[in-house]
Amino acid sequence: MKTVIAKQLRKPSGLLGFLTGRLLAKQNVFTYQAIEKYLEFFEIRHAFEIGYGPGAGVQYFHNKYGIKIDGVDFSKTMYKAATRKNKIGIKNDAIVLRHSDFLTMENIGDRYDCVYFANVTYFWNDLVQPFAKIRDMIKENGKLVFYMTNDSFLATKPVTQTEVFNKYSYAFVTETLSNVGFKDVRHHQVVAQNDDFLIIEATKK
Fold first, then answer.
1. Does position 21 have pLDDT exceeding 50, yes or no?
2. CATH for the stretch 2-204
3. Quick one: which of 80, 74, 77, 81 has its CA closest to 100?
4. Residue from 142, 147, 158 nearest 28 by CA
5. Segments in the chain forming alpha helices (H)
6. Rg, the chain, Cα only
7. Cα–Cα–Cα angle for 93, 95, 99, rounded to 5 degrees
């Protein structure tokens, strides 16, 4: 059962995926507020979210700051949910959501002021390729900010004790970011009720 749940967290699908998405939309309010502390959204015009899920973060940042947001998610269930949630922004060409796998989608050039995401790193078997791809998407001195649960905390959860989850340490993550061409790489640990997480931030050289 824990493998089934883990796979749904990675790529929600069907009715169970729809219900997972609704749960994530509620839980991720706190997640996006944590990311928000490390991005100067009033100075950002164009952002990109990887793994937007039910679209709660896209909606939150677009409505609050009026910025243009693109995003990609490889779950068809989440794509449908996110497009419903953000239909006004999509209609106004302020939001563009893709249904695709970030790792295999075409390179789209250095057009973004920032890239952000939450709870995605665990599902990448290698970090060099995605981090290098993100670097190429960001404008010079643009930022990457993302949320990840601390590996030591993940180790206490039964659902993460499957082949679905990769439990990376912050030291490995930050070192990889530096190696692929980011500067000012930092991690911020936050211990909250029922969670122990990290916000990682980095700037393109």
1. no
2. 3.40.50.150
3. 74
4. 147
5. 2-10, 14-36, 56-65, 76-85, 87-91, 128-137, 151-154, 170-180
6. 16
7. 115
